[in-house]
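Chapter review: from sequence to fold.
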Amino acid sequence: MYITRFLCDSFRNIRSQELVPDPAVNVICGKNAQGKTNFMEAVWLFTGEKSFRGAKDSDFLPLTGSERRVSMRLAFESGGRENEILFGLSEGKKQIEINGVRRRGVSALTGHFCAVIFSPEHLSLIKNTPNLRRSFLDNAICQIRPMFSKTLYQYDHTLTQRNSLLKDILRHPELRDTLEIWDERLAFYGSRIIRGRVEYLEKMKEYARQIYFDLSGGESLDLFYQSTENLEEEDLYASMIEKYRQTQREDIQNGFTTTGPHRDDIEFLIDGRNAKSFGSQGQQRSIVLSLKFSEARMLAAATGEMPVLLLDDVMSELDQKRQEYILNHIEGYQVIITCCDVQNTDLLEKGAVFTVSDGRIQRET
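The token string follows.
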């Protein structure tokens, strides 16, 4: 899968723009606040996912001019045929067309144009709270198993109900007997989530180890799923129910459920040392890149299509060896990279270089 043409009449500060990228590597250079990340965000929206910057629809509207609308088209090669998607936004309403057919809602885009995004915000995967690491894993699984999102929703809904009941039991002890039904439901959905995460992470681990080894020039990376549950139990469902019974008194005192997949985490080790505590900025960035490249390989294996790689501000804090790997050794994918320093392109062996200024992107000869 690769983009053949991007047309934009208006999106943030990008106006009247047509871009024809190279099927291999594309580097977009420019100073800060010129539109590099805006372009990446615009392309990402064609996947049907929300903005990776957490932006609202109103943030997509042009920054200047009297016409307050978004209008973009993306043409791409997939499955041996040319496809085109129209993405429009006007008066708070989205307009979606896929190959000339009007569709309702951005969810209709899922599965048509596939991409994997890296942005500086993703560096917090290593350094920040377990919630971000769980979300990364869950979102990656949902791309290849859409029904997994329904299981996540059902678990979160059941967890909210159980936590509410735990608070009520402090005032109404007679409600304690009703906990059993919520324990069973929570264990049912929770065991499915944990099994799904562990299975996905085990497959991702093999890709990530090799990619990190190549990126770093010989360092080893390992990933471990850390759970409040006993992953060795053959019947995880029954084990979780028993765990809820054992921690019932503690849960009632705290007013929330203390065990389950909502408390789990992922640990990253570089040469046997905890990356969160001992990893440098460059090493932590390399781990996230390894995860993102692994996500792309998992998606390609599941769909039969190589997703487009969108790498925003990826070059900073990487040494020359890592930069050269990203520019020249990611084979089989169309890659779009943004950076501030045009000298980063000196290592590029083949592909295209673009410069961006005030929302206008131009290809360099």
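Two observations follow directly from the output. The chain has ten helices and 15 strands. The first strand starts at residue 2 and ends at 11.
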